[in-house]
Each structure stands twice: as C-alpha cells, then as structure tokens.
Amino acid sequence: MKILSIMEIRKIEREDLPKMVTVHKDSFKGFFLTELGDHFLSTYYDCVRKDDKGVLIGLFDESQLCGFFAATTLSKGFNKDIIKKNFLQFFLIGLRLLFTQIPSLVRLFKNFTKTSKEVKDSGEYAELLSIGVSVNKQGRGLGKKLLTQFEDEMRLKGCSTLSLTTDYNDNEKAIHFYKDLGYSVYYDFIAYPNRRMFRMVKKID
Questions:
Q1: Which residues, at least 6 apart from 114, have a Cβ–Cβ distance to it below 8 Å?
Q2: Helix %, strand %, coil % of the chain (to 5)
Q3: What does DSSP say about strands 184-191 and 161-167: parallel, antiparallel, or unpaired?
Q4: Is 114 helix (H, G, I), strand (E, B) or coil?
Q5: How far apart are CA 50 and CA 32, in angstroms?
Q6: Which has the closest alpha carbon to 130: 67, 64, 60?
Q7: In this structure, are strands 126-133 and 184-191 parallel, antiparallel, or unpaired?
Q8: I want to staple 66 with a disulfide (CB 3.0 to 4.6 A). Which of 26, 31, 90, 137 is the partner?
C-alpha cells in the first residue's frame, strides 16, 4: 500500500534558510541572483522574512523543504526599504562584490526596481518576489499550491491587487500558467542590461 506524504505550508524560520537557499539554487541554476552566492541569498531572504511587509512561506514534504515563495504586501519601495533597514549587512555584501564582481553589483542595484519608463506604475500592489520548487519535486502541482497560498496570504492581509514578473522570451509555459490562474499582462519592460520581462497583475476579492 502506497503511503501518502504529508505536505505542510508554513512560515520560513531562520533555521530553515540554509535549506531554502538550496531550493533556490536548485530552482534557478544559472540565474543572476543565484550567482551572487549563498550569503547574499540568505541575507536577502532573511530580511524579507523579518520585514513587516514581507512574507516568506515554505512548502514542506514530510519536514523536507521542497518549495517556497517570497512576497511583499506593498511592492513600492520594498527593496530599497529593506536595504535601508539592514544597511550594514548589504554594505558588506556590496563591498565584497565591489572587489570581486563589479558588473554584478551594478546589475543588482539597477534591477531592484522593475518598471517601465513608458508606463506610470505606482507600485501600489502586493508582489510575488520569488517562487521556487526543487527540481525533483516539479510536475506535481506544487507551484500552483504555492501560488494559491500566496494569494490567500495577501487576501488575509487586505491586499486587492497582486503582481509578479516573468521573462518575456522563451517562457510560454510559465506565462500560460500564470494566465490560467487569472493573471494578465500589465506591461513589459527591460531589466538591466537587456532582459525583457512582463509584469503581470491579478485582482482578488
């Protein structure tokens, strides 16, 4: 007889961060933020976790973290705010990058705000900052489960509009996934240096 695994969705605690970084690296191999290293990822996600506008949720399969999402209840100025609140930590990271990865440092700060010059975007919405599922757990509907949880969390916090960003090119599967769940394209923009992306939004009750 097959024994069904027990899935649990709960807040990420500080002690979960190393496992979450592992899931991030597994989900986003070769991505820019991944290349900034474990220390940056752990610091950034911990700052999201501690912030009063931040939400960090993990999906656990029999106590094993296999997916997560990071979000904020207000997109406007969120990344700049957490840098100000945790200035020393990010200063030390920036100092290390200044000596080892100057192009990465420039790219990091140019991409903290993702907007279009052609569209007036107030940022007055909740935003899904990151969502990932371990490669060996993909194809089981866990991404949809996490996205649904994101919407539930934001609804409980009184948010009425949700947003996320995703790649414009060679990304049809993800775009259709979000559209099937009620997201529509708000606008497209160019992330530094030349990465074309969509901002998508969804209204919730």
A1: 165, 189, 191, 197, 199
A2: 45, 25, 30
A3: unpaired
A4: coil
A5: 23
A6: 67
A7: unpaired
A8: 137
Q: How far is CA 115 from CA 64, 75, 135, 191, in A?
A: 36, 11, 30, 8
SS3 178: helix
DSSP alpha helices (H): ranges in 131-171? 142-156
Quote the CA–CA distance of 64 and 133 in Å, as a whole number.
12
Q: Specify the pTM.
A: 0.90
Q: Which two tokens stand for residue 205?
A: 């009750």
Q: What's the rounded Cα separation, in Å, for the pair 200 and 185? A: 4
- The Cα 17–Cα 118 span in angstroms is 38
Alpha-carbon gap, residue 66 to 198, rounded angstroms:
26
What would the pLDDT profile of 163-196 be if each residue is shown by its tens digit? Answer: 999 999 999 999 999 999 999 999 999 987 788 9
